[in-house]
User: What shape does this take?
Amino acid sequence: MAHSSGASYDGMSRRAALHVVALVMLGSLCRAAPAGAQEANEAAERLYIAKGCLGCHGVSGRGGVGPELARTGLSFEAFLAQVRTPRAIMPAFPDEVVSTEDARAIHEYLRGLPPAPARLRTNTPQGEQRPESCAPCHLRLNPTIVAQFEASAMGRPGTQNARVVHARRAFNCADCHGTNHTTISASKGRVPELKCAECHAQIYKEHVLDRGHSYGPGPGDLGPNWERNIGVPNYKQMPRKVMEMGCDPCHAQAGATDAKYWSEQEQKYIDTSSLPYRNGCIACHTRHAFSLVEARKPEACYTCHMGPDHPNYEAYMSSKHGSIYAARGDSWNWNQTLPQAGWEAPTCAYCHMLYVDDRGGRSTSHNMTRKIIWGMGVQAAGGQLKDLTLTPDNQVARAEMIKVCMTCHSEVKARDYLQSADAHKLAGDALVVEARELVSALYADGLIQPGHGQLAAGLLAGPRFSATELPTTVAQHWPAGLYYNVTAVEREYFDMFFFSNLKSYKGAFHMSPDYAWWYGYADVLGHLARLRDEDQSLREARATSRRTTFMLATGPLMVLAVLGAVYLVWRRRERGRASATA
Assistant: This one.
């Protein structure tokens, strides 16, 4: 009886132990399942980012130039079909770029994303509103923009600028934005440049229609202004959010709000850029202040005219003109118009927007290209090494610039300096042309292969073209064309002509010794030295490879020849000994 009781107890103990083990294993599985799911989700998120999806569809699928994909209702089959054979402007992603397994993981990631954060303000007005209701509401919610507008020439009653004939003498928010708040919100407050042109027709003509803030039509069939930004090769495949943060804001100076880029039905821009807020006028006359004083100062140009490829602001500020402005500019009367200005040194606006006639009379224009000869300054990248100042049109342009210089200097001093700057520019160009020929020879000899086999950040295959002989439809100085999938030699050449040589050129014409020499010409020489070394290394490596190949191919034959010769000598000696013995 006691034995039976012990066996029963042991059985119960074993069952209890098994239950404990089962519970432990179940708990482990429960913990492992979420951990495994989390790892899979994180891997899918990495795919979404690395494969470039967020470039158009935004972080966490919240949308951009492409539609919002978070919590998508698309089936996987429909999702995959759009990836492989997309509608509208989306490029196709073949299986070798995004596999079916990757696409499935991205689809699951998108379906499981949390809802978008709730808006902070949900009680915004809808439909038609009274024009007089705008300011009181926005004064409470956005006091800065109301204060800016009320202090501006547009916000004050009466005529503030005698040179401009306004359609009305007093303005309110509705004159530019309209009265339908639903449309205003949907369009993100869009005010196209044509709206500004209703009152500023001449300025619009000079700035937009006459391409006064653009280098005009691009190579091939590229148009001027905004089209030169979105029309270059590779743009459609570039990460749009990267372009929105980088290239687009500065290149939207003219024409980006044109009707052909806008959909009234969708209330959004449909030109492949995800830049939602555009108007070339506000680049210099910041909304809602529209300040003439601001636009007359060099800082208004700083946002765009700076950096490694066009350090206009940095070069100006480190020049004698810039140092005078920095030291004394606070005491100048910035309310004077450019023709009236009695400043002790020129500013960007003074040099590029002021025109002086033969009798000394002054006027202004928003066409800032009429006095420019060298433009962006990339002539050498196309193999050109020529004095462009000799053409009749450029002689006129140079004369117009000298007239402005003569408001402070003699003609001789102004002309001599500009001619020296021309020589400095061409000296740097000569080094670029040498480097271009060096790189061309490396292509011709098969020592490097054209690296441009990709269209988007290393993802999508496209036509191949070299760094020196680009298709006629390509702007040869287009930066992104030499950012992805390039050899070290090609990138060295790009940095040389697009960064260092342009610093040299801009430094000379903006009178900055340091940018003309140390940041510019000296750095061009450094790039050329590295290119020469790379050229020599590649050629020596090929020569060594050929010698090695020759030795590997002929070595065994040479050994056989030596052995054969030794054998023949041995046979001859043996025969001689045999003859002597006989």
